[in-house]
Amino acid sequence: MHIDFTHIEYLRNGNSRQQSAYEELTSLSIFEHLRDYNPILTGTIPIGIDLPESDLDIICQCCDHVTFAETLKARYGNKRNFKIQTTGSNELRETVATFWSGDFKIEIFGQDCPSVNQRAYRHMLIEHKILNSEDDAFRTEIMRLKAAGLKTEPAFARVLGLQGDPYEALLKYEIVDL
After folding, report:
1. Paired strand residues for 159
2. CB within 8 Å of 9: residues ≥ 6 apart
3. What is the spatial distance between Cα 158 and Cα 152, in angstroms, rounded to a whole number?
4. What is the pLDDT of residue 2?
5. 133: closest CA among 158, 159, 151?
6. Do 82 and 105 meet the contact criterion of CB atoms below 8 Å apart?
7. Domains located in the chain, CATH noted
8. I need a surface site. Which of 57, 69, 132, 170 has the fewest CB within 10 A?
């Protein structure tokens, strides 16, 4: 099943958690406020393998981290547990803001890289494709490993038998269509 993950409309018809995420995100107008930064919701909630504590991860493209941080502070600085920091060198600079809204922890991540080229988005697309090519037992095992404490990419790597760095191995994984 093909989903356009670059827009959050698909969440409206998803499971109850996805519908709640849609309601929360639209009530905050995050995608309108951050339109200039090409925001995309990534992570486990969009592909339905989230845990109760899973957050809403929004990736953005930003070349001016000062302005991006100021925008985030102005829009969401009053939210519960708001934190923001910019780290890294000029080539690998990242700005991350976290806060709570409703029942969700929200993390907004900015990097000077097109959103569709960022690892979080690429991982999510690959994981979605894998989930759609496997049976329910595969999904159940991913969820079991995640509940036991493994991060998503290492869980996929373990179930798929991938060697080395799970984040890199997953990016290289190819699904064979029969």
Report:
1. none
2. none
3. 10
4. 78
5. 159
6. no
7. 8-115 (3.30.460.10), 121-172 (no CATH)
8. 132
Give the integer Cα–Cα distance in Å for 113 and 91. 10
pLDDT at position 178 = 46
* Average pLDDT over all residues of the chain: 93
Low-confidence ranges of the chain (pLDDT < 50): 178
Cα dist from 173 to 28, 82, 121, 156, 159, whole Å:
36, 36, 15, 10, 13
Handedness of CA 13, 17, 19, 25 (dihedral sign): negative
Distance CA 158, CA 150 (A): 10
pLDDT tens, 66-116? 999 999 999 999 999 999 999 986 678 899 999 999 999 999 999 999 999
Give me the helices (H) in the chain, please.
16-28, 30-33, 65-76, 119-133, 136-147, 152-160, 166-172
